[in-house]
Amino acid sequence: QVRLVESGGGLVQAGGSLRLSCAASRHTFSRYGMGWFRQAPGKERDLVAAISWSGGSTSYADSVKGRFTISRDRSKNMMYLEMNTLKPEDTAVYYCAARLSPYDSGDYVALNGREYDYWGQGTQVTVSS
To answer: Which end of the chain is more exposed for a tag (fewer CB within 10 A), N or C?
Structure first.
């Protein structure tokens, strides 16, 4: 079992920045592919960004490319989402997710929420106009 805890959400003005963090409980975190998803009121949960277990490959939703950066520190069991030039449409609950990846290549990035095994409780990000 892996426990994921997100932090760093909050209220920010449009154009501002936030950094989300995800702390994972298990020392074997290094073999987990990771992702950030978000869900706005009345909408489905969508992928924001994902990173392979090696950290060597990443993927982003078109809406956040060039503004958000996903990264991970396997030595600290941490994952991050640096969010810049935030827009009101980025307002959502942001979730951290982990995928047990014993057979994935180091460059495989899971893009579908159904591929993930563990989820955090979410952190609210609100961007005011």
So the answer is: N
